[in-house]
């Protein structure tokens, strides 16, 4: 089965779970005075779940024309994923997760410098001085602009300092 | 009206107010370019500064300058990085970014600058002419019509889908609507689908979703296939800033149509620059010839000019209900309304009579602001576009960093970053399977407004009676059905024809 149909299958299952929550669990929390209303908090989700299942099934069963359709604008074929730089992509995603976890405890300046420098290293950059200068400068300038100029608080240093 | 224009000119052309326009446009352009800091956040930050000016005219001119400057700046990051700074410039990236990847970044930025200028200027002229009359038209729309209008907006996404893609586009729209139901709704004030998580109480952040849908998958694609980062232009040097005469001729009718359409969409409360830009793109794609339609999404001049013109015209249009009725047409104008009240100015029908200098100075300053944006930005384009010459080993970490910062600054919450990565991976999988991502975002943006207006109509008419009792609502809903069914019918006919040819009929 093609990837788009797998996605449609997962979407139909998701709509069923979403619809179950809307039809059977949400209304139990409804205060009595709201039960007289013609529209409840679950009304719109109920409509969406039904509509979602219908369009999901249309894609799943391929009821829409696929032959003679426009060529895919995506020029990366997921079936040849192993031929691409998958390791680098996964490492960068991991680095993003690490950045999200470390941003508060490690502080903005340190975590940002490590993130930008680490990202460049993962992608194969080996000019150490350029990496460090750009990472430190970017972290410093962005912190100054956001915290000092715009007044949005960003903890610059690690928690223990 | 002439008297008003002269009054506005004398006020807007004072040294202080001219300085406010220039400052507002510069600040707005800079902030708008940073993904994550949209006009709403920057106007909110600027309010205390504006109030300290003491002069309501100068304050409003400054804030208005920031507003359309931010919309203009947002288009720059849309074109160069595929990371829309503001929702109103999402549609700009559809054709602007492919143009930049073809080595035509300079041309794309010039087209964006010229279209924005034209849209904003024509919008300002229309505002001066129609402001009083249009306020009464907007008053005719009730929640039922708004609900129907939004259904039409969502149906128009069929325009984004190619043959055989309507169901996929609708699936993505429904997913966007479902994501919009997470968190506390304005009408019911009850947490829904939060799974007990405090971070989901206020719903999913639009900025996080926009970054996850557009910036992150593109960055992941650039990592997966390094060849994608090589622009077809070769050296990456920005040489060609000009568009050809033929391209100019093609743009002219688009600018004319979208200035008017964008302005009128902006006038309707609830339908701001975002809807105007998406609808502008959809309309131009639909009415284009079959040959031109193939270009849309791959770097079409018309596809770039349409949303850029429409969003600036809509920004101007959104001032009509704000200035004449005191009703904010969008989140941004709602913040502006708060600023006006803080400045002891009560917007409404009496503003034109009681304080004509403020009313007309703002309108004139909008025209001046658009001129300032053009003068400031055109010479800066080669320098702005230099961003594309940065090696990918540096550019990609920076794109990812700005994407993360955009999501973080908006909410000041590290959980947003984890959500961004999760949604970004999901968006990449959707992209692999050729699902269009824009409908998801449109569904998400319109979801809350759609539900609120639907619920209000249901409460008012004690059920679905509003559909039959209000002819305008019925008409709009029929139009929405036609918009969905027509492409499906065309696809069905094409399939039958193809089958007929194959069987030798």
Description:
The complex is a heterodimer of chains A (161) and B (505). Chain A has 161 residues and is mostly helical. Chain A has helices spanning 3-25, 43-60, 86-106, 108-122, 128-149. Chain A is flat, with a radius of gyration of 25 Å. By secondary structure, chain B is mostly helical. Chain B has a two-stranded antiparallel sheet with strand order 1-2. In chain B, α2 packs parallel to α4 (56-81). Chain B is globular, with a radius of gyration of 22 Å. The termini of chain B are far apart. The interface between A and B is large, with 74 and 76 residues.
Topology, element by element:
The complex is a heterodimer of chains A (161) and B (505).
Chain A: H1 3-25, H2 43-60, H3 86-106, H4 108-122, H5 128-149
Chain B: H1 2-12, H2 15-33, H3 39-53, H4 56-81, H5 90-101, H6 105-140, H7 143-155, H8 166-180, E1 183-184, E2 191-192, H9 206-224, H10 245-267, H11 273-287, H12 290-295, H13 301-317, H14 319-325, H15 331-342, H16 351-354, H17 356-384, H18 392-411, H19 414-432, H20 438-461, H21 466-469, H22 471-502
Antiparallel strand pairs in B: 1-2
Helix pairs in contact in B: 1-17, 2-4, 2-17, 3-4, 3-15, 4-5, 4-6, 4-13, 4-15, 4-17, 5-6, 5-13, 6-10, 6-13, 6-14, 6-17, 7-20, 7-22, 8-20, 9-18, 9-19, 9-20, 10-11, 10-13, 11-13, 18-19
User: What amount of the residues of chain B lies in strands?
Assistant: under 5%
Assembly context of the chains: heterodimer
The largest sheet of chain B is: 2 strands, antiparallel
Name the average pLDDT of chain A: 85
In short, what is this structure?
Chain A has 161 residues and is mainly alpha-helical.
Task: List descriptors.
heterodimer; A: about 160 residues; mainly alpha; 5 helices; flat; B: about 500 residues; two-stranded antiparallel sheet; about 0% strand
